[in-house]
Amino acid sequence: MSKKHFNLYEQEQLANNPYVLRVSEKSITYADEFKRVFIDQYVSGRTPREIFETSGFQVEILGLKRIEQCADRWKKAYEKDGITGLADSRKEAVLRPSKRDLSPEEIIARQDAKIRLLEAQLAYVKKLDRNERRLTANGKILNPSDCFNLIQEAVQQGLGRMTRYLCQLLDVSRSGFYNYLHSADKRQERTLADEQAGALIKKAFHRRGYKKGSRSIKMTLQSEYDTCYNLKRIQRLMKKFDLVCPHRKPNPYRLMTKATLEHR
Questions:
Q1: pTM for this structure?
Q2: pLDDT over 60 (residue 92)
């Protein structure tokens, strides 16, 4: 049980939720309807936190530990007894439950609940296995930035709770992945700056009808466009935009003459 206590304001906020029957300083009694809604959405692939938030609960008031405990308790009850296991047994007579044979309808309900859980788990495993193969196949030839992009796509497809495993799968750091997510705006700004600089470098590259190397481009930018770029930046953008300067091939006759002179 969570050790969090609710103050008067938090109790009032929780009591206003239609899915809450009673609330005290230490405990909450949820409606059976909310438990059924929770199981339906959980089986479809949503996380417990998302379900509570969309149902009007504030995670800051409840606390993540209480949400996880509720999810675990309701999942076990549903797996054991189906929908009937989610009902609050405290409102009934507190007697020792009678051991009786289940009716065919109850047996079918339990089996149906078990099948739904197994199908959800199987779909999750298939999704994970498919992404594992794709990530492993592509990760061998990608740089860390591309690996982070692949992990982000996998997380958006429903693998949000497997970030650590995906980072280990591609041999990249988890802190680097989160830094990649937080620096999205900076990458966008850098992309725009690269496009502007790349357009200018392309003009200098094709200046006077012939292709140039990075040093010639640097001099052309300074003399013709009054722009000074670092040589490494020019080389990086040339590689990014596939600007290749052809190297002049050596004269074969000159090489033959040189080789002949060396053997004399």
A1: 0.39
A2: no
